Here is the input.
Amino acid sequence: MGQTPKILLLVLAEALCCGVVAASFWLEDLRFSLPTPRPVNLVEPPMGDRVELREPLATALGDRDAAPCVLHFFNPSCPCSRFNLDHLRRLVRTYGGRVRFVAILEGDDAAAVTVEFRKLKVGIDALPDVDGRIAASLGVYATPQAVVLDAADRVYYRGNYNASRYCVDRETEFVRIAIESCLAGNAPPRWPSIATTSQGCELPANLGAGQEDPR
Here is the structure.
């Protein structure tokens, strides 16, 4: 075989590899850009309604001195939960003095998920939620998701962090927008469906349970 056919074969092989990688990335991106299946028994407290906080969350938030709080729902096994960590760290650095941040850790092993989250050095308190009860009480069924509560424990925002899973679109930084609006004393904005239709990984506690799959 001459040099030209060998070169062509190498070029074709590299092109094929690149195509496979690109297709895998596209399929992964498509998968996590679709709505997460909703549990059939899902109950979502309406925006603006006060919620009764369950233990141990009630104790964790009891000393926040009438400040709003952001509950960050995190699962270390979910790729999407890691994509937005830099954005979360920026939010904590910017608003941590005026807003209480708590991570709600979803996973099958409380000790393991706590260790995994501490390794990330986000700098916020964390509560394991292995049975998904905290998430269910707030209408959360995917990660990463955020719930913003005002100082009176009313639901100010519940949904995605961003229209982009890497949180690079400033115009759709929904959690930042919610924090700033809440701190300003404004009523909750009318959130678009792209903000409130959950995208990401199903909660481990919901896997195998009955679901409605919008996909």
Q: What stands out?
A: Helices lie at 3-33, 57-61, 79-83, 85-95, 110-119, 133-137, 174-183, 193-196. Residues 1-33 form one domain. Strands lie at 38-39, 69-74, 100-105, 125-128, 142-143, 145-149, 155-159, 201-202, 211-212. The chain has two domains: 1-33, 38-207.
